[in-house]
Automatic annotation (TrEMBL):
<dbReference type="GO" id="GO:0015562">
    <property type="term" value="F:efflux transmembrane transporter activity"/>
</dbReference>
<feature type="coiled-coil region">
    <location>
        <begin position="94"/>
        <end position="124"/>
    </location>
</feature>
<dbReference type="GO" id="GO:0015288">
    <property type="term" value="F:porin activity"/>
</dbReference>
<feature type="signal peptide">
    <location>
        <begin position="1"/>
        <end position="25"/>
    </location>
</feature>
<dbReference type="InterPro" id="IPR051906">
    <property type="entry name" value="TolC-like"/>
</dbReference>
<protein>
    <submittedName>
        <fullName>Multidrug resistance protein</fullName>
    </submittedName>
</protein>
<keyword id="KW-0732">Signal</keyword>
<keyword id="KW-1134">Transmembrane beta strand</keyword>
<feature type="coiled-coil region">
    <location>
        <begin position="313"/>
        <end position="340"/>
    </location>
</feature>
<keyword id="KW-0812">Transmembrane</keyword>
<keyword id="KW-0998">Cell outer membrane</keyword>
<dbReference type="GO" id="GO:0009279">
    <property type="term" value="C:cell outer membrane"/>
</dbReference>
<keyword id="KW-0472">Membrane</keyword>
<dbReference type="GO" id="GO:1990281">
    <property type="term" value="C:efflux pump complex"/>
</dbReference>
<keyword id="KW-0175">Coiled coil</keyword>
Amino acid sequence: MTFANLPLRTLRLIMFALISTFSQAQEKISLEKALELAKSNNIDLKIADKEIEKQTVLKKTAFQPDPLQVQYQGGQFNSADFDHNVSVQQFFPIGNITKANRQLQEELAKLAAKRKALSAYELEKAVTLAYYQYLYGVSIQKLNSELNDIYTKFLKNAELRFKTGESGNIEVISAKAKVKEIDTQREQLAFDLAIYQKQLQFFVQTNEEIIPDETTSLQYPFVENQEAKAENLMTDFYQQQISVYQKEAGTHKAMRTPKLGLGYFAQTINTESLFQGFTAGLQIPLFGGVNTSRAQASAISISQSQLALDKNRIILKLQKEELQNNFKKQQKNLAYYQNEGSQYADQIIETAQKSYANGDMSYWSYISFLNQAIDIKKQLAEATHNFNQSAIELQFPTIKNN
């Protein structure tokens, strides 16, 4: 028998059995631990480490002599006799070219480190968002469980009132429908949590089944004035990019200096004795326009990077102002539901349940008050989630690096 042929109830039982087994194997971790794992496991950061390593290794290429020239000549170049000539010549860079190359590679290694810092910043933001997204799912799941308890009690009261003839069957049917609706939502929430867990695991990039510690406060602990980190990282990156172009321009200018060549030769004359000698010379770049143009292009790149930095500073400033306004809005909204709304919801539920159980309230009034209280509780969960999202976005504003 295939899964497609199984009854719906059986499929649900299988699903919950799998989810239950899956949950038992999960390790609960703090946000700090999740960030630690992400920074040690994340493939993008490992690639960034390899780029730093590569640029560091390339420092050894700063000294770049020309290939060794070895030449053999044989024939009648001295007399009618067949003589031999072997010569070896090597040209070496002189001037500041080696120093310029080394400085350029050092700046490229630093740039790779700055780029890794940006990647680590983006990863920290992504992990934090995913972590609190899961906690939001947990809060909705707890609310669903609370609603299930409320409506289960309501169903018992409705059935009792129906048996005693105090109410009609409509109350029982309505209560059963609501309990079934909540049960269906519970199944969907289980899937949502599984999705949120995989999102977190994707960023942490571990084979372990990890989930956030549910004892963590549902409200993100926002720290004031931490958003300056984004501007510092962005500024460091572009300033380092400028340093690379400056050294690149210096390298192109240094390439206009001559190269010193040293050589050795040995030959026979009239097939007699081996005669030896040494040579010295210079390679002079008479046509240095190519390297001059490249140096000018690097200077233009410096201007481009400075303009990009200025532009992204403006973008970041405007972004932070927008995020700050949204944060204050969500903060005020959350404060209401925490300080007043939540208490109102609990009072409404408690009073309505007592009044309905004592027969002092009609079924329809009870349902109306109950839905009002439930809506307030949902709004509290949403307000907390929206606050967390705005706080994390404000603490980790998006950095443009192009």
